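Q&A FORM
Asked by: J.P.
Topic: structure of Mitochondrial import receptor subunit TOM9-2

PROVIDED:
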Amino acid sequence: MASQGRRGVSDRRNPKNEGILSRVSNSISQSPILFQGRQAASDAAVVAKKLFKSTGKAAWIAGTTFLILVVPLIIEMDREQQMNELEMQQASLLGTPAQK
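REPLIED BY: S.T.
REPLY: Here is the structure written out as tokens.
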């Protein structure tokens, strides 16, 4: 009979038979502020993913454009400089004045 009395007291204090910690945890997890925070974090993650994807595409476009347009120009300018140096060497060996 003593055990029945104890159970009755326990049931009166906590009708759903939940602990205080679980009730607080449930009320926090169902908080509208927490929901808005999670939604904002989710939205931020989506925006970041799109930003990284578009940045990658832009980097690819810039890199391939550089390789196609700028690298051949640099190579040609280097060849021209080497030809000018070679002409200046030949002119100095032959004794003719170097042309500028």
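FOLLOW-UP: The radius of gyration is 39 Å.
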